[in-house]
């Protein structure tokens, strides 16, 4: 075999030191990801007072939910309930996201110590509130803290999201370099009459654990083989980690090659000079318009409507987003639609809050190829499809990623220890 080229040597160094930079972060992200693959189940079990309600025969309507929203704001005038996610099961609570209201006297946001509120969709009772990411060992906050830790670590939200997005890109690069380094080196010309092993035969050793090898070799085999066997999934999680945290950059990159719609990160209208606090179009009117526009779009694009999913108002844009589950949704293992707060979810219609004008439709599948692919990739990341088997698989993948990082650190440490005596000998 030939000696490593400069390019190969450079990639070894990049893989080593980029891996060292990523290792601790990825261990935290992977371990928390293994846990929050079961996020909804854990929340329902350990946070039942806020997550689970007693179903009522009369049911609830969107207008009921909007009245509850107004009630929640009236209970705390410092709050602005900007997003409602409608229950998709009879025993689910009404989940809302909150931001500080604007103090009319100072023009500044009120101080507010929570950003999530849960209510009973049948009675309007306020079941509880919390600040996502606030460290807690209680059932009401423990798993939301782990969720926050997964996508923002211990940093402030904006900085944490930026960092994790950059780490996702770095991890994707690290995965590509790692794959390259498993490829067998180019062979020297063979002597006459000598039959050389094929490329696949030589590469096959990278996929195996060597029997009877010394500990150092077994450690290398474990690091290399586990990464190879799971390489496509590792790349998917790296890319989607970038896309989920830095959706605007992801959308911009994808749009260079294909049409891709992402209303939250690349809105259909520019931001306003000043937030529109009291829009002419009310929440109730927006919901009615959303239902009407969906009926029109369903006929035009040939999809069927299911349950309303969510409604959100962006005061920085002066735009309502009305979300509905449709036949274009991805479904989980039990046939339930995926969650509603990422690009991989329900259909979305944008409505101008000043005029009620229809601004656009975003479908998770069947509208743009890039949206369809992204929806599938996002759904894999957040375990929104595949049911229990995929949740188990994601938990195991998280442990494998932690193992990859740990074995990479051990390999670096062993090499460092071995080189120290040589370095000392050269100095003497």
Automatic annotation (TrEMBL):
Keywords: Membrane, Transmembrane, Transmembrane helix
Classification via Pfam families: PepSY_TM
Membrane-spanning intervals of the chain: 20-39, 148-181, 228-251, 390-413
Record's keyword annotation contains Transmembrane: yes
InterPro entries: PepSY-ass_TM
Keyword Transmembrane (UniProt): yes
Domain of life: Bacteria
Signal peptide: none
Identification of the protein by name: Putative iron-regulated membrane protein
Organism: Novosphingobium fluoreni
Taxonomic lineage from the root: Bacteria, Pseudomonadati, Pseudomonadota, Alphaproteobacteria, Sphingomonadales
